[in-house]
Design a protein that fits this description.
Distance between the termini: 30 Å
Number of helices: 0
Order of helices and strands: EEEEEEEEEEEEEE
Strand content: over 45%
Helix content: under 10%
Oligomer: single chain
Shape: globular
Number of domains: 1
Number of strands: 14
Length: 134
């Protein structure tokens, strides 16, 4: 987690699960990085308030790593545009440019998985999720 109104640039990062990004009013860009993402519970393995967040040529590897809290699924990226801890967020932009979403061999056939799980948001917030393949 970074402080509100931060600017973060990261390249060639290799991060193990759990995965959690809190980007309230911040700008973050990651390139050529690999992020392991574990079980999605009510706190860990998610992106909260993406604000201005971009991933370029990154891999999101879903692994069977649990946090000890109840969970129902796994996701390479679970996006929470809103949360009651802050005022309604508007005009946020999240970009996945040439990113790969993969499953580790630890994931079981019965596990519910998503590449990107975009939680419901109101249309008037004009928050934008963009994916590019080239």
């Amino acid at each position: 987690m970074v402080s509100e109104r931060s600017t973060v640039t990261g390249e060639d990062i290799e991060a193990a699960a759990p995965f959690y990004l809190f980007c309230l009013n911040s700008t973050m860009k990651f390139e050529r990085s690999t992020f392991e993402v574990g079980a999605c519970d009510t706190f860990m393995n998610r992106i909260l308030f993406p604000h201005r967040l971009s991933f370029v040529d990154c891999e999101f590897r879903v692994v069977r790593k649990e946090t000890g809290k109840p969970f129902t699924h796994f996701a390479g990226a679970e996006i929470w545009w809103q949360h009651p801890i802050a005022a309604r967020q508007r005009g946020q932009n999240l970009l996945f440019d040439r990113c790969r979403f993969t499953l580790d061999k630890s994931i079981r056939p019965e596990d519910k998985t998503y590449a990107i799980r975009d939680l419901t948001d109101a249309p008037d917030t004009e928050n934008t999720l963009t994916t590019k393949t080239s």
